Amino acid sequence: MTLPTLVDPKAAKAAGPRPDGHPSVKTGKVGVMLVNLGTPDGTEFRPMWRYLREFLSDPRVIELNKAIWYPILYGLVLTRRPKKSGANYARIWNREKNESPLRTYTRAQGEKLGTALADLPDVVVDWAMRYGNPSTASVAERLVAKGCDRILSFPLYPQYSATTTATANDQLFRALMKMRAAPAVRSVPPYYDEPVYIEALASSIERHLATLDFEPEVVIASYHGIPKPYFEKGDPYHCHCLKTTRLLRGRLGWGQNKLITTFQSRFGAQEWLQPYTDKTVEKLAKDGVKSIAIVNPGFSVDCIETLDEIGREAAETFHHAGGENFAHIPCLNDSAEGMAVIEAMVRRELLGWA
Fold first, then answer.
1. Sequence-ordered alpha helix ranges (H) in the chain
2. Sheet of 218-224: strands edge to edge?
């Protein structure tokens, strides 16, 4: 029996001669797109207004009927909130680069990932925002222009929610709808229980706590909240958060009273996932707890919700209620631990492509 001749995959895919007049086409590359939530372009009213309009107009973020929500959004929210949010951003703004820390850290993640994947010459790494700039559509177009006929999208949310991961995927597919020759697409799944992620969190927490001159009596794992009705409709986010905390607790060897779960950043009048971070911080202080630390496992990089809402507001709440020692544990950002997570997930999901 004659065995079939093995064909070099690259040779099999090599482009043959094109007819005269054929448009120039680049192919053969694989794009990796890191996608974060988004950021305004500035702290002034107009850039804040544009960012908040895009963010709060997403039907996955605000599930109210547009006939009900838009009059509230344009008549109340977008007339008041840009100024307040702009003041909050101004406190944490990266003056050197004139951008938010979220953009600074996400760019750094993209650059470091590109270096880490230097052994994969056909892989092109870029980064994008779901809301704001650089937009998901512009980065997708840039990757395709570089010859990427396959794109691995990495929504940088460890725990899945329709308000985050799904919106990132939505936006990428909206971009593909406008392309004549759309690339094949994969999306990195949520990684809330991946061993490399849990180990990175634990190592980061241990390293930071070792620098403090006090030992926290309680460490709070504070996640961004979602409205409770979203959870009741089947959003798995709450379960993902609880599992992350449980695995982290086991890795650190802590009891249930040492590491607790709370939810922050609620917006509007409806009930959100509980317990609320601000209420918990206040109660702990009033109950006599003098030292706490807060970590944000649901955020891949530090941003307005971690640096200002936790680093400033939660600290003020704790001290005002009688607490003494407060520490905010930084997100993984572009640290060695954080990059180990991103690289491991990307290499796994690239299997068969690169």
1. 9-13, 45-56, 66-72, 78-92, 101-116, 136-145, 165-176, 195-209, 228-232, 237-252, 277-286, 315-320, 336-349
2. 259-264, 218-224, 291-295, 325-329
Using alpha carbons, select from 329, 346, 331, 353 the residue that is nearest to residue 110: 346
| Calculated CA dihedral for residues 54, 141, 95, 78, nearest 10 degrees | -10
Q: Read off the pLDDT of residues 89-132 as tens digits, 9 standing for 90 and up.
A: 999 999 999 999 999 999 999 999 999 999 999 999 999 999 99
Go through the domains of the chain in sequence order and give each one's CATH number. 29-190+336-349 (3.40.50.1400), 195-329 (3.40.50.1400)
- The answer to whether residues 200 and 329 touch, using CB atoms and an 8 Å cutoff, is no
**Torsion 226-232-233-237 (CA) sign:** positive
Q: How does pLDDT run across 212-254, given as a tens digit for each residue?
A: 999 999 999 999 999 999 999 999 999 999 999 999 999 999 9
SS (H, E, C) 51-81: HHHHHHCCCCCCCCCHHHHHHHHHHHHHHHH
pTM beyond cutoff 0.85: yes
φ, ψ at 261 (rounded to 5°) = -105, 135
Pair type for strands 184-187 and 218-224: unpaired
List the beta bridge partners of residue 152: 32, 186
Q: Which residues pair with 276 in a beta bridge?
A: 263
Q: What is the DSSP string of 283-332?
A: HHHHTT--EEEEE-TT-SS--IIIIIIIIIIIHHHHHHTT--EEEEEPP-
CA-angle at 167, arms to 165 and 173, nearest 5°: 105
Residue 311, phi then psi, degrees to nearest 5: -60, -30
Length of the chain: 354
- Residue 162's CB: how many other CB atoms inside 10 A? 19
Segment (H or E) for 34: strand 29-39
Q: Which residue has the tokens 């918990």?
A: 280
